[in-house]
Specification:
The chain contains 25 helices and 13 strands. It is of the alpha/beta class and 546 residues long. The strands form five sheets. It has a four-stranded mixed β-sheet with strand order 2-1-3-10, covered by helices on one side. Helix 1 crosses helix 2, helix 15 crosses helix 16 and helix 23 crosses helix 25. 46% of the residues are buried. The N terminus is likely disordered.
Length: 546
């Protein structure tokens, strides 16, 4: 497999040198790297020329990627969606879409990597590839894109030149572009997760929306005692995207994973004193019946049921797929049901929350690479560059004009087919068929999508409320450890994370005494935490020097 992919890389180098499609070459991998400009310096590439869409081709390309649940609820393939068909028609390129089984993306990706012949394009979170994107290039899996972007991708090239901070995120430390990235194009799109509570219950009890940990305690206690809630606060603990940014952990100044300290250095939250204080508070709440007793095993469906049937009065989740769905479900049986967002909690009234779940403009997911098996790199590149064109931007964010949106006063407005579907489909489901705005992919997400997707006033309120934190100062950028560092870091952190998660639950559930906190910290340190921090900070230094 390795030999075959190196030959494929050489093929790409010759393709670029001759500016034609489908050539072969006997260049070495070192020459191939130079030809593709993986050092970040343009070699001999001509300026990018705009493509005339639809492209004149009768070739078919293969495209592997997860079928997001927002799409899979109504379609078996991207090919079946109005967006998938419109994308092919607009670009003139026929695509054979290949999707891993739902819930088996990582396993099937690993299986895919063992094959000798790969799809032409693969959509994945390439910053999670073992060893990072540099290793994927070194493994002969994907090709570097510097010269390809210069020659064939004027739309992506223009966007990156106009947004230097995002440009820094989507390449390796040596300046190599490796993917067609999914980019959140506005600050309002970065904070889509947070705490929420039953406003109607608060009104009945004469309580204000809680802003401090103590106020949350009083509200949850009242929910249990006065509303009969058996799980006053519930959320899907097993979801990494939620657990890492538990709002109450942030109130004590330490999320459970890596973050930046006040001096801009990487530290590890799960051994900080603030994390201990958070766990002690959660243990107290658990003992008093204020947290869902099934916390460790909750599924998303179970959380949804509890927050809408009166078992729970508060949760933590996404404004779109969680809050919107829960409001609709809750109001279908109880017209008074009113779920609203709360600020990220603090310890003292009036403080600005230090943490909140905030993503980078480039989150990594939904990024598409061209593999070394692709024989028509120019066609693949121009197909993918379409997503960054004006027409592609509108299609990926709003769908098909006249069907899923209309232009009103110069702005795209979703039609009733999307917002009030006569077949009873949710906005999440209808958008999944016509756009990729509520999923991800090779394009720039538009803020105009979110203001319409959040159809309930409570959802719209999250845009300002959940972003009103100092999280921007503490979130790690998309750093990339070297190949050797990544391997070492994975070995260290797999052991640490397993132990941390086991002990975190034990502390919350009360099966582990806090008298053993120092032993817990020293055990994590003995597993190589200092070396992990050394690697993370070295990667951060290189990122800052990009």
């Amino acid at each position: 497999m390795r030999k075959k992919r190196l030959v494929a890389l050489a093929t790409v180098a010759a393709l670029l040198a001759a500016s034609i499609t489908g050539c072969s070459s006997s260049k070495s991998s070192e020459e191939t790297t130079a030809a593709n400009g993986s050092s970040g310096e343009t070699q001999t590439a001509a300026p990018a020329e705009p493509a005339s869409y639809p492209l004149d081709t009768d070739e078919t390309l293969t495209y592997w990627g997860e079928l997001n649940v927002n799409i899979a609820s109504n379609y078996t393939s991207m090919e079946d969606t109005p967006l998938g068909q419109a994308w092919q028609e607009a670009t003139g390129v026929d695509i054979e879409f290949q999707h891993p089984a739902i819930g088996q993306v990582s396993e099937q990706f690993n299986l895919l990597m063992s094959k000798q012949t790969l799809p032409d394009m693969i959509e994945y979170s390439w910053i999670t590839y073992p060893g990072g994107p540099t290793k994927a290039i070194d493994d002969g899996v994907i090709i570097p894109l510097n010269d390809i972007i210069d020659q064939y991708c004027p739309n992506l090239k223009a966007y990156l030149e106009a947004n230097p901070e995002i440009d820094r995120m989507v390449k390796t430390d040596d300046g190599t572009y490796y993917c067609f990235p999914f980019i959140r194009g506005d600050e309002s799109l970065l904070c889509n997760t947070g705490p929420m509570i039953r406003q109607d219950w608060l009104d009945d009890l004469g309580l204000e929306v809680p802003t401090t940990v103590d106020e949350w305690y009083e509200a949850l206690k009242a929910f249990k005692e006065e509303k009969g809630a058996t799980a006053p606060f519930t959320y899907q603990y097993s979801s990494k995207g939620l657990t890492d940014y538990n709002p109450f952990a942030g109130a004590f100044g330490a999320i459970r994973d890596f973050f930046l300290d006040e001096d801009g250095k990487v530290i590890y939250g799960a051994v900080q004193e603030g994390y201990k204080n958070y766990l002690m508070e959660m243990n107290k709440w658990m003992e008093e019946g204020l947290i869902d007793p099934d916390l460790a095993t909750l599924t998303s469906d179970q959380v949804s049921a509890k927050i809408t049937n009166g078992s729970a009065g508060a949760s933590f989740g996404w404004a779109g797929s969680n809050m919107g769905t829960w409001i609709a479900s809750g109001q279908s049986t109880d017209p008074n049901y009113n779920l609203v967002p709360t600020p990220y909690p603090t310890l003292k009234e009036g403080e600005t929350p230090k943490f909140g779940r905030r993503e980078n403009n480039y989150p990594g997911a939904g990024s598409v690479v061209i593999t070394t098996s692709c024989e028509n790199v120019e066609l693949a590149a121009r197909f993918l560059d379409y997503g960054y064109s004006e027409e592609g931007h509108m299609m990926f964010n709003f769908g098909i004009e006249g069907e899923s949106y209309n232009m009103v006063d110069g702005k795209p407005v979703y039609t009733d087919m999307i917002l009030h579907n006569e077949d009873g489909l949710s906005i999440t489901a209808t958008l999944g068929g016509y756009t990729r705005a509520n999923t991800s992919g090779p394009f720039v997400q538009d803020k105009e999508y979110i203001t319409q997707y959040y159809s309930y006033p409570a959802q719209a309120a999250t845009l300002d409320l959940w972003s009103a934190t100092d999280a921007k100062n503490y979130v790690l950028p998309p750093i990339t450890p070297t190949v050797d560092e990544s391997k070492e870091l994975a070995q260290i952190m797999n052991e640490i994370a397993t132990y941390r998660d086991e002990m975190t639950l034990k502390f919350i559930l009360g099966t582990e005494s806090f008298d053993n906190w120092d032993t817990y910290v020293s055990t994590i340190e003995s597993m190589g935490l200092d070396r992990a921090l050394e690697i993370e900070n070295a990667a951060l230094d290189r990122y800052n020097a990009r």
